[in-house]
């Protein structure tokens, strides 16, 4: 029966096999977007904004991709390397934050890309390239956001629908007793028959 207690248990829940590929896709997208966002940051610093600690949506996207790499890469490592250390409540918090960060990241990148590309319409240069990089971050970031939602939903479902496996029989420990049928008393017809001895008449003198 479904129970929220599965979210506080320890151990890897019974994921569908295809969830592994969802997480690999998120990791691949994170690596690609980390490169694109880092390149966008390098273009954005031309105005000196990075010197004041502000890198715009490209800096936000760098943070999101690093967070995603740590969360999903680390969870896969624990899942296959040390499943007994997989604390589901921690995973729930980290996956939920990943969904929120991806939403903020791609939405922020999309709004800034639209602004920059509209302002540089018909012109080239680094500013236009920066807007194009943000557009890529917004598009691929939206895909990663959808995948992270799918992963979170099926993570929760796997936890709350976890079926308790039946206890293994302990025959090898000598603790299983075979049921014994009641023994009915034997009837006369079932008793072994004794051989009949014929009596010879005694000889008379």
UniProtKB/TrEMBL annotation:
Start-end of Low complexity biased regions: 192-205
UniProt-recorded name of the protein: MARVEL domain-containing protein
Comp. bias regions, Polar residues: 175-191
Region Disordered, residue ranges: 174-205
Residues that span the membrane, as ranges: 20-45, 51-73, 85-110, 130-160
Coiled-coil positions: none
Annotated keywords: Membrane, Transmembrane, Transmembrane helix
Domain of life: Eukaryota
């Amino acid at each position: 029966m479904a129970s929220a207690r599965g979210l506080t248990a320890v151990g890897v829940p019974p994921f569908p096999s295809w969830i592994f590929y969802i997480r690999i896709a998120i990791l691949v997208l994170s690596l690609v977007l980390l490169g694109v966002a880092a390149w966008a940051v390098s273009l954005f610093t031309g105005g000196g904004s990075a010197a004041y600690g502000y890198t715009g949506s490209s800096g936000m996207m760098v943070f999101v991709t690093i967070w995603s790499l740590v969360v999903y890469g680390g969870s896969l490592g624990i899942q296959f390397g040390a499943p007994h250390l997989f604390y589901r409540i921690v995973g729930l918090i980290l996956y939920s934050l990943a969904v929120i960060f991806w939403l903020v990241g791609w939405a922020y990148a999309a709004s800034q890309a639209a602004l920059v590309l509209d302002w540089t319409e018909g012109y080239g240069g680094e500013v236009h390239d920066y807007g194009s990089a943000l557009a890529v971050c917004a598009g691929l970031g939206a895909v990663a956001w959808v995948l992270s939602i799918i992963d979170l939903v099926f993570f929760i479902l796997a936890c709350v629908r976890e079926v308790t496996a039946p206890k293994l029989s302990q025959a090898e420990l000598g603790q299983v007793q075979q049921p014994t049928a009641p023994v009915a008393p034997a009837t006369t017809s079932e008793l072994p028959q004794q051989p009949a001895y014929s009596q010879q008449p005694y000889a008379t003198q």
